[in-house]
Amino acid sequence: MEGLPEQRVICPETRSASHRASSASPKKVPDGFVSEVTPGQSRGSPCSPSTRRSPHGVVQPKTSPLPGRPLRRALLASPSRSGRNVSDGGVAIDSDAVNLGNNGGPQSKTSRSSRTSTLDYMSQIFPGRRNEINQLLNLLGRPCDLIPPLFVYGPAATGKTSIVRETMRVLGRPHAYVSCRSSHTPRLMFESMLNQLLGHVRSASNNYGSARKCERLIDFTKHLPAACAQALSRKSSHDARFRSANKNAPKAACRTSCANVDDTVYLIFDNVELSRGWTGGALLLGALFRLSELTRLSNLGLIFISSVGLDGYQASSLSREPLSMYFRDYNDSELNQILLLQRPNVDLYASFLSAVLKTFSRACRRVTELSRSLEPLYEKYCEPMLRGATTPDDNGKRQRYAMLQPYIRPALSQTLIINSSTPGPKRSKIDQSGGNLARTKSTPRRTLSSGKDVQDMAFEMPQCSKYLLLAAYIASRNAATLDAALFDAGDGARGSSRKRRKNSSSAMERKEAEAHEQQMKGPGSFPLERLLAIFRCIVVESDSAPSNGFGSFHSGPLFNGNLEEAEGDGHMTEELSADVLMQLSTLVSVNLLSKSSTNPLDGNARYRCNVDGNLIQKVARSVQFPLSKYLLHG
Amino acid sequence: MVSEEEVVEAVSFLRRRLCAAVWETGVGAAGPPLLPDVEKNCRNLEACLIGTIENGSNNSVLLLGPRGSGKTLVTERVLAHLQRTFPERVSVVRLNGLLHADDRCALKAIAEQLCLDHHLVFSKTAAFDDNLHFLTIMLKESALSHKSVVFILEEFDLFAQRPKQRLLYNLLDSMQSTLTQAAVVGLSCRLDADELLEKRVRSRFSNRKLLFLPPSSEDICQLLHDVLMLPTDGSLGDSPFISMWNENTKKVLEATMQDIIGQTVALDPSPHHIFDLALRAVCNLDQGRGLLTVADFKAANTLLHSQFKREALQNLSVLELYLLVCMKRLESKEQEVCNFTIVFEEYQHLQETHKTSDHYSREIALRAFEHLMERELIIYADFRGRNDAIEFRPVQLLIDNLELQEGLSLNPQCPVILRQWFEHMTFK
């Protein structure tokens, strides 16, 4: 705590100098550089910029595909996602519970020159954001300047949160930060904010309790004035301590950095677009926009950060529109600049980027996703280096590009979709599809599909489940009227073919188109009875047709003869009520099937199959089931 | 040469004035001047409240007007003035619909504020009935000591939207008694706020309404002029800089009057809107130069009137643009349901017929589709089936033809083929 202010001092000159050094030569970034940028981060998960030198002086990244912490911290990752502010949840990670910031940096003097140096320093860490930072600094003004509510918005990964928080830190303004993502109820939000303002750290000694109990907005408005006053007084005592520790501080700095009671206290609300989903969220947001009016505090600086523009809110009915500030997406050259930052071998990476970035940025412009999906490709690019080549010249670049060309497309489709597993060349097939499964669980809205190159199923499930899944797939892809034709003994198919002959060709086409359209609208839903009926049918049919190659899986240790096999499957059909329903509920709970109502006693619940074509083909193959025979449209 | 210190002081002063919280600076010179219409309302309200204080006539008034038209400013000024002219004879209870719409909360807040005013001890645990009882007693006691209670109800419409309107009924009912001496002032931006009242409440309401109409553009321009002038009465010192600033600002305002200010006023004639413009311009001020320029106003104007959809469209990746155009085409084909699978089929159809270089796999397209969803350029058409796969959930496009066209022409990356494909939407 005592040593903290000194550690936080950031001198823009040395900062930029070391930065230039790092970008001009492939030298390793000095360690001090890293620790300077991220004072509050020492307690995150251990993740060092993993680089090692090859004998030829070329630095190549280790297989760990996570971008180094400095990169993540300084450029793209907003702090809320890099584990820095677990403090909203409870335990404050910043060693100062209230973010008093430092005041030894360029911000101490209010003169114009210091403002420009802050701007320079900030745009150094956040390339391509000079305009936005300039705007923000303009609007913030001096510590005692009032500021109307500010609404910062822009697409994801454009540096909104990082820039706002870093600006606060560099300018040394007292502020509290809360994200609607981690503080997912109004109560958590209010209490976290008050904790930060009051300097209260939740710990075992206070039983992880908050400083103030704050259930509703009205409580918050009552506590806020005192909390703001305390934050300001702590700020000034912090300043005093800092000054005594640093006697050489210039006089002007002392005068202006001394917080007086009228200074603005900033409250930063992040991810406010999420609050729309809360009960009474719109009302709450409208009230927050007018917080300084409600609390009768004029020195509140309210900053809202959102990924959705103001037109996504109906806030104008509840309050005046706040001043909005837009963070646009990065363009190609800015993306290039950002991805190059903190790279050990800048020249090599630049030539790599010139080869691939154009293709990637046409599909995806989000810097977080790009940096991750480019990683495995870069390793491929570096492969010739391992064999002794040096940084390529123009000709070599062209060769390298030709070599890389076939990998670009697959890499694009492979890596952009995986976000929970860590991509890398050493990842085995099982790993990869395991990652896929994990992703599906975390975002249950997508259909489950396993990786394209994987021929087998990536995970095992009971035989009974597989048949259930197949039955569900058939039930949701076929119309219910078709069941009789498919599963009725014998003449169902003949009947339909006779019908077909009767229809004129145009009517047939129309019907086909209709069916196709139906198909596009997604899987149909079906009642439990239909699922069980189809299940029974397909189990019996595949049972009675050993010519389908059923023998192959029966040759396993459990099934040694035809008799036993018949018994096994017969067993399965008879015990429908218990085992099969058990499996069914398991399938629902892993979201392979979805159920229309969550009520377990609801008999009318309809099911839907969430499995896509690729996966179900694999399932069918694994039990040697002729799926295509049962599907009307492929 | 302008001294930097002075510029900083001036900017600070103007910022303070422009975003001044009304209750604090309402009395001081720093507060923004009033428009003529607002001034009239101010006098009416004052007369009405003076009637309560001096003659014991229990009044109720509604101040109605759009956001930012000065309702709160007027109320606070009048109250400040009354408290100065009749010290110890007015006690003010402030309620806000955003905070106290709940009856229990509101009564608690009333009791708390009255206790504070009369130096009584407020009990947090008091029940609703206790508080109500306390309120009636307090009203009587106040009347006996010739002290008036003024209730300010901000966001009056939110109080009126509560079931039974109990609080409003209780307050307005107590106005009917000769034993009390109180006034109710309601502020609302809903012009039909009095229509929301129940019959039994409306019959107790005195039907006094003060309307805050949008001012004329001349008035607004005059207001802007007044606000941006630095005071010459010596509160900021007597340096030549002040007159220099005022001269320059006058010139700049004349130059920008036609286009920028006219445009701003045409969009929203409320004083607050023009203050926002002025604030942005003042923030943009280059402190080395020290004086406002036309360019500052121009920059402020573009920042103030940002167009969310267009900005988003300008920065989309090529694939995302393709998907949007596909959706637009499907919409023009009058397809009633639209989901990712259908959009992707349309996209593939285009790729097959034109063989462009932007042919991406389904997974990438789905990711791009999700990005569009995050930007809220498209949304789910219904809230049913939250568990269903994203590919099949019906979606809706939130941009219209014109916006998309503009976006395509502004996007630097947009391929020519896509533009053509969009323009000939109905063919092929």
UniProtKB/TrEMBL annotation, chain A:
Q: Which InterPro entries match?
A: AAA_16, ORC5, ORC5_C, ORC5_lid, P-loop_NTPase
Annotated ranges, domain Origin recognition complex subunit 5 C-terminal: 461-631
Give start-end positions of Polar residues composition bias: 38-52, 431-452
Query: Bias category Low complexity: which stretches?
Result: 73-84, 108-117
Residue intervals of the Orc1-like AAA ATPase domain:
126-297
One GO location term (cellular component): nuclear origin of replication recognition complex
Basic and acidic residues composition-biased segments: 508-519
PANTHER family attached to this UniProt entry: ORIGIN RECOGNITION COMPLEX SUBUNIT 5 (PTHR12705)
Question: Protein name, please?
Answer: Uncharacterized protein
**Organism for this UniProt entry:** Physcomitrium patens
Q: Which gene encodes it?
A: LOC112294538
From TrEMBL, chain B:
User: Where does the signal sequence lie?
Assistant: none
**Purpose of the protein:** Component of the origin recognition complex (ORC) that binds origins of replication.
Gene Ontology biological process: DNA replication initiation
Encoded by which gene?
Answer: LOC112293180
Protein name in the entry: Origin of replication complex subunit 4
Q: Where is the ORC1/DEAH AAA+ ATPase domain positioned along the sequence?
A: 58-186
Just give the chief location class.
Answer: nucleus
Concerning its family, UniProt says: Belongs to the ORC4 family.
Q: Which InterPro entries match?
A: AAA_22, ORC4, ORC4_C, P-loop_NTPase
Please give an example of a GO cellular component term from this record. nuclear origin of replication recognition complex
- Tell me what organism the protein belongs to: Physcomitrium patens (Spreading-leaved earth moss)
Residues spanning the membrane: none
Subcellular localization, as worded in the UniProt entry:
Nucleus
Keyword DNA-binding in record: yes
Q: Tell me the keywords, alphabetical order.
A: DNA replication, DNA-binding, Nucleus
Establish whether keyword Nucleus is in the entry: yes
Q: Can you give the residue ranges of the Origin recognition complex subunit 4 C-terminal domain?
A: 223-407
Write one Gene Ontology MF term: DNA replication origin binding
Any Pfam family from its record, for instance, is: AAA_22
